[in-house]
Design a protein that fits this description.
12 strands, eight-stranded mixed sheet, Endonuclease, Chain A, about 240 residues, about 20% strand, single chain
Length: about 240
């Protein structure tokens, strides 16, 4: 039987969903993750447990984007007219007014209901919501970082020899320089469907200089950049 939830209990139940070892889906127009939720998402990512996040507002700051882009088991999807909020795994579901937003959890008065799939009174409603989410997800776009990167200033990081700005080896979007992660989030998710480290991007780009290059996950840079920065590319 559906259970009523108020603000603190909603947050607690969402936390339990994040702690579950099942794949989960988080549907929230606005995103601003609390420290605790970030840690739980990172733990899920480290354990390679799939998390799908569907959101509808592109007001994501640099810090939020950097974190989400670094989690390989998180799949970001964008649905522009999204207003509903729902969080679920295979067993439980929360339908609520609360965004996955730190401010909402700490300052707003929120309501919600908890459904359990295995309870006879909840089973039909649980499935009805799943059917609606399936429609939303199938019409969502894979979130592409390059579409919003002009909306914020990227913080530059340097070491003694090289700038930490890099390029996606498929689309040339500017990303953090990381030889082990040479794709932007959107293109990484496409690559991940096959996970072939030797696959060559024939119309690709060098991860370091951004110039046209037949790059791959295994060899993400051009020869000139490799010669200048051999220590960064042990597997080249």
């Amino acid at each position: 039987m559906a259970k009523f939830l108020a603000t603190k209990k909603i947050s607690s139940e969402i936390e339990d969903i994040l702690k579950s070892k099942q794949k989960i889906t988080l549907v929230s127009p606005y995103l601003k993750l609390s420290k605790d939720f970030r840690e739980l998402l990172k733990l899920r990512n480290d354990k390679e447990i799939k998390t799908t996040i569907i959101f509808g507002k592109q007001e994501l700051n640099h810090d939020e984007l950097s974190f989400l882009m670094g989690q390989r088991s998180i799949y970001l999807k964008f649905y522009e007219t999204l207003h509903g909020k729902c969080y679920f795994n295979d067993d439980i579901m929360i339908i609520t007014s609360m965004n996955l937003h730190e401010y909402s959890m700490q300052n707003n008065k929120e309501f919600g209901i908890l459904l359990k799939k295995n309870e006879p009174e909840d089973k039909k409603l649980f499935q009805d919501v799943l059917d609606e989410i399936e429609i939303i997800e199938s019409n969502s776009k894979e979130f592409e970082f390059r579409n919003v990167q002009k909306g914020f200033a990227r913080k530059e990081e340097h070491n003694a020899n090289i700038e930490t700005n890099g390029f996606c080896i498929r689309c040339q979007a500017k990303i953090k320089m990381d030889p082990e992660h040479p794709y932007c989030l959107a293109d990484y998710q496409k690559w991940k469907k096959f996970e072939d480290e030797t696959y060559i991007e024939k119309t690709g780009f060098c991860h370091l200089c951004g110039k046209p290059n037949a790059s791959s996950m295994e060899k993400p840079v051009c020869m000139d950049c490799y010669k200048k920065n051999k220590k960064l590319f042990k597997n080249f």
